[in-house]
Amino acid sequence: xxxxxxLATVRSVRRSLLLALLALPFAGLAGAATAVAPYxxxxxxxxxxxxxxxxxxxxxxxxxxxxxxxPPLALRLDYKRGIxxxxxAEASLREMREMxxxxxxxPRLEAWxxxxxxxxxxxxxxxxxxxxxxxxxxxxxxxxxxxxxxxxPDFARAFxxxxxDERSSAPALRAALLMPxxx
Length: 183
Description:
The chain has helices at residues 3-22, 85-99, 106-119, 153-164, 171-177; strands at 43-52, 55-64, 73-79, 128-134, 137-142, 145-150. By secondary structure, it is α+β, with helices and mostly antiparallel strands. It has a six-stranded antiparallel β-sheet with strand order 1-2-3-4-5-6. The longest helix has 20 residues, at 3-22.
């Protein structure tokens, strides 16, 4: 195998791992930990596991009103592995860039990447992060504490689109999250 083939393989594996990790900051426990809505007026929709290369990276749980594709909504990610906050931000940016590939808005995407890198903490197995999509933008929480806000509705739409857009790179997780609430 040539050096360039090895490099391409390493990059491919690294990209896949980062994509798996990017969902981590907002994943949620599918059990009792998500019994209480993380935001007033929301109810629990679906949940599912995100796996990459057979590794369980996180569980995600969606909380929303009547329309799970419009704010306000909350996405909780419960991590099953440790991941650096910077890696989460990089993977999130890559996913957002891929879905917006027809939009030549590199400076804006890079600014979003810098904001996420400042906000997202390193996580360990057992940690969870919550992302709130509000009409004015996004807020990120951990353990009831606000980590940061991005006051840009376009950012919020692009960020939550990682999981909810029909072009998501994890269509099975998207389908699980969009399952209507019981009753």
